[in-house]
Amino acid sequence: MRPINLIEPIAEYKWYQIQHWPILMLAFRPMFLCAAIWSVLSIALWAAMLAGVLSWRADTPATLWHAHEMIFAFAGAVATGFLLTAAQNWTNVPSVSGYKLGLLVVIWCLTRAIFFVQPNLVWLVLMGQLAFWLAAIACLSTMLLRAKSKNNYVFIFILAALCTFNSLFLLLIEQGDFALARSFSQVAVLMFMALIGVIGGRVIPFFTARGLALDTQVRSPKLDRLLLWVSLFGVAGFVLSEVFKLALNPGYLLGLAALLHITRSVLWFDYRVFTVPLLWSLHLGYALSATGLLLLAASFFNPIIAFTDALHLITLGGIGLLIIAMMARVSLGHTGRPLQVQHAISVAFIAIALAAICRAFFPSLINPHQAWLYSAALWCAGFTLFVRYYFTVLTQKRVDGRRG
Questions:
Q1: pLDDT digit string, tens, across residues 137-172
Q2: What distance in Å separates the CA atoms of residue 359 and residue 338, rounded to the nearest whole number?
Q3: For the chain, which terminus, N or C, has the lower number of CB atoms within 10 Å?
Q4: 321-369: per-residue pLDDT in tens?
Q5: Could you count the other beta carbons within 10 Å of the beta carbon of residue 10?
Q6: Is 65 exposed, middle or buried (0-12, 13-18, 19+ CB in 10 A)?
Q7: Rama region for 336: left / alpha / beta (φ>0; ψ in -120 to 50; rest)
Q8: Which residues have a Cβ under 8 Å from the Cβ of 337 and sit 6 or more positions away?
Q9: In this structure, are residues 176 and 241 in contact, taking their beta carbons and an 8 Å threshold?
């Protein structure tokens, strides 16, 4: 009689299960969910620090932990989740899934835990972040290069730049140069604006045309290319000015980029978007990011305009609102569900927009600490609603039976 092998079937069963878990079928599922949950937890912890309820005992200033977790961890996770998912549509090459995707998520989650529980182990955080970024870049590059998708090579460059800025940020913290580290977090925000310019130029007109049943979508290829180059030169100018301390003013290029963003926002606008939450949220988020960038540029010419307040209008109103709107739309589309959101998700969009306005404008009107806490509460409320209503969407199979 053939001996019974208990180990091999169990091992095969476990790997089979992991490969077919719905949450690990495409990158948007775990990365969107983890990013949304962490955005609530990290901002709640940050608010507790601001309120004096929680103390931060580390050599690293708490403000740098907050900046890192919102820019490189939260926004970075959403960006990689979106790109690794979209690249499969662009190339018809299978994206990362199953246990490989699970490993990527585990690395991301462990790095979050290490940075909060042991914030002085910056070198370990650096290793975790590098592993995450390099794995994501390798997966994206493999797909795009295999399909020779030259039109999308720009995303490899942008992710590589974000990886570089993240690494320099952490290395500078390790060396105790907190001011320069903060500058690299600001550079990363500007690079995310360049990413928004590319992705927004593709999806917002497309989603608008589909959502309003229009015959054609607005196209502006020359404007799109000009905006990309102006944005990249603006980032370079900011680096030369703030990092290398050269005597030049990046406000000119940043202001020009902002005006180009605003021009596209006007071209894309159709008053009927106000009837579709998945559309007005995208248009409002893009408009807020453009406005924030314009104010950021103006801060180089007028000291009355606070640089950090303008930066937060970009991060909360632009990046934040665009992220939650994109996650809501992409999650429905890629799981075969109708492109309609519950009223609670519309409330979530409003909450994030108000959080941005509160953080950017209220500090000059009321006690700044109160304004920050109100903004944090609105942000947590918005993303809590997203997690509440999208947890099932992201963790269960497509409703049409297809894989993805």
A1: 999 999 999 999 999 999 999 999 999 999 999 999
A2: 34
A3: N
A4: 999 999 999 999 999 999 999 999 999 999 999 999 999 999 888 888 9
A5: 10
A6: buried
A7: left
A8: 393, 399
A9: no
